Amino acid sequence: MARPAVETRALTKTFGVTPVLREVALRIDEGNCAMLIGGNGSGKSTLLRIIAGLSQPTYGDAIVFGENSRGLGLARRRIGMLTHQSWLYPNLTARENLEFYAELYGLPHREDLAMNWIDAVGLTASSNDRVREFSRGMEQRLSIARTMMTEPDLLLLDEPFAALDPGAVAIVGNLIRAAIARGCAALLTAHAPFDLDIEVARYQIANGRVMPLRDEPRAAPRSRMGA
Amino acid sequence: MKNKATAMLGWSTLIMMLVALFMVFEWVPTEEDQGIVQRIFYFHVPCAWVAFAAFGVVAISGVFYLWLKEQLFDDLGYAAAEIGMVFCTLVLITGSLWAKPIWGVWWTWDSRLTTTFILWLLYGGYLMLRSIADDTPEVARFSAVIGIVAALDVPVVVLSVRLWRTIHPAVLITRAGEHGLEDPRMVVTLLVSLAAFTALFGWMLMLRLSQLRTRSRLMIIRRDVALIEAAAGDY
Amino acid sequence: MAAFAAVLRKDLRVEIRSGQSTIALFALSLLIMVVLVFALSPQPADRARDGAAALWVALVFAGMLGATRSMIAENENGCIRALTLSPIDPAALYGAKLTAAFAFMAIVEVAAVVLITLFFNLDFGADLVRLAPSLMLGTLGFAALATLLAAISSRTRAGDLLLPILAIPLFIPAIIAGVKSSEAALSGFPLAAASQWLGILVAFDVLFVTVGALLFEHVIRED
User: Considering chain C, what is the average pLDDT of its residues?
Assistant: First the structure.
């Protein structure tokens, strides 16, 4: 019996009087991957922020590793989050950014770890450049390294493939698959469905509601062998 | 039920105020040194008391808001700050009116006036925050923090201002008037006036609070209606 | 504790590299002193008082700028959210931001003290050393207050307007005590003469460092 990494219960969020999320019930078990598909302003990012405890639900709850997201304790440590903001300091180099986050999370062998992750996302040549000088795609790569470096048990990835070239898409796809293979749960968002080559539960978000994706443009979740 | 209590408090405030007015203008004897001007003191002191008490309410509701996250405490803090600001302004005005004939100047950096003035600035900052940040979702949280910080600042303000005035050569030293309650009727008048102003504060607080509560409830209703409408649109 | 060191080291590293805040802080305090020199037309008799006043005016306004910049840097790429999500204790985060702000302000003040000595014809010597306690205590108090308030103002519309409105009234007790004790030091009185003022500064610091550490959590969280 798989344990849930995230479970939302009638999760509702409004900004002022405008509904953004309505009674979202979503469950992602450990080692599973869910994809949330919706357009701009559909509430995808808000849902991710609420699960990470960075925003408070109006009604309902999000339970993350058994803790309510309204007051996350130890579970915070287990979340890796990628947003459309990179969470990187523009005046620090790529290495310094990763070393800073490694230190913040109390990880050992910071220098090696940072360098390994920079290599893993293909930024070796730019490791000593400041993030301010990075292109959007490079910043996104480094941000993914930042997210993955802490070996999270729950990945919240807001449009992880945005601004990435095909090479980077392959690298990032591999990283996500590797994380899931070791038992990490993942919630990804995207504008349109895409194939991740693993079993993915697809949902669509529209008008604040999250539902299983009805119109499957590619393959049913289970049929990756045939895809 | 609640309206009835507010109305009753309102009527008692009116009666107490009339009694206090009668005592101040007709009953209490005129103070010998200062003359008729001294009577403003029976309004000045209660106003100062209300201003400080309101500040206390702001801070305590701030603590409760951060603790319990109940909208009620945010509304209470807001209501108390507004009323406190009004009374703090009245303290400064009545103080000036008294100072002119007695001290010969409208304003002097006397320790009590200075403290009240700083209190007024603190209230001003709190209310500015509420008006500038009213579109920030966290405004209630921020206001609670500022309310607490400001109230904790007050004792240090009192301490430093007192020391500041005593070390400085005081331009105007005589202020016997404030302690010259030699006639027991003066004490009684002051106490009645204090009670009347306290009741007035309570009444104003209840009125303003119920207004803000209504506004908060209306927001929740509008929010819920929007949710229901959106749900109806699903089908 | 490791997280505290990480944030502090990060802030110092960014600052040493660019020198942005320190240079801006220094430039602003220099200009404030220039304004005050012309506004006061220093007289030899009042030089200790004028010097102390100029120093504290510079401290308040430059400090506000420094604290704001430090919090804006955290908001720039949403980094404050990364910190909120990370295992760091908000009090440790507050401590790190406060320490960094204090360090920048202290560096600028050393330069400012040299400037007022020149501008107001004060003596280089023991008086300036006696200035240290009042100045450092005042800086700590202001950094404590400004770090907490800048976290609020950096997240509100027109926050640059809001910060002085909130900070200056709260800081008045420390301004009084700081100017008085600095004046005593510059007039050549022994430290003991200003002990009451220094006591108020210590009380102010203890109060606001504690309150800031306790309340910082509430000003960085989002609803």
Answer: 88
- Chains touching chain A at 3 or more Cβ pairs under 8 angstroms? B, C
Residue of C nearest to B160 (CA): C173
- Look at residue B56 and tell me whether its pLDDT is greater than 50: yes
Q: Does C128 touch chain B (CB under 8 A)?
A: no
Check B145 against C215: CB less than 8 A apart.
yes
- Interface size, chain B vs chain C, as Cβ–Cβ contacts under 8 Å: 102
What is the end-to-end Cα distance of chain B in Å, rounded?
Answer: 42
The residues spanned by each domain of chain B are 2-230
User: pLDDT digits over B168-224, tens only?
Assistant: 444 444 444 445 566 778 888 888 889 999 999 999 999 999 999 999 999 999 999
- Cβ-based neighbours of B157, under 8 Å, separated by 6 or more: B115, B118, B119, C172, C173
pLDDT in tens, A187-224: 999 988 877 888 888 999 988 899 888 765 554 444 44
A62 strand-pairing partners: A8
Q: What is the pLDDT of residues B128-154, one digit of tens each?
A: 999 988 877 789 999 999 999 999 998
Q: Tens digits of per-residue pLDDT, C29-48?
A: 889 888 888 888 777 778 88
Query: Closest Cα of chain C to A149: distance in Å?
Result: 13
CB contact under 8 A, C176 and B135: no
CA-based nearest residue to B186, from B79, B63, B36, B27? B27
- Give the whole-angstrom CA distance, residue C26 versus residue C29: 5
C52 touches C182 (CB < 8 A): yes
The residue type found at B67 is: W
Say what the pLDDT of residue B166 is: 67
Cross-strand bridge partners of residue A80: A155
Whether A14 and B227 lie within 8 Å, measured CB to CB? yes
CATH 1.10.10 for domain B2-230: no
Q: What span, in angstroms and rounded, lies between the C-alpha atoms of C139 and C79?
A: 26
Residues 122-181 of chain A with CB under 8 A from chain B are: none
Residue showing tokens 């002085």: C164
Quote the CATH superfamily of domain A4-212: P-loop containing nucleotide triphosphate hydrolases (3.40.50.300)
Candidates A52, A85, A104; nearest CB to C3: A104
C18 CA: distance to closest CA in chain B (Å): 32
Contacts of A40 (CB under 8 A, 6+ apart): A191
Residue B30: is its pLDDT beyond 80?
no
Minimum-distance CB partner of A22 among B137, B219, B231 = B231
Rounded to 10 deg, the angle between the B139-167 and B71-103 helix axes is 30
Chain C hits for B159, CB-CB cut-off 8 Å, are 173, 200, 203
Burial class (CB in 10 A: 0-12, 13-18, 19+), C24: middle
Neighbours of chain B (3+ CB pairs under 8 A): A, C
**A21: pLDDT strictly greater than 70:** yes
| Enclosing H/E stretch for A91 | none
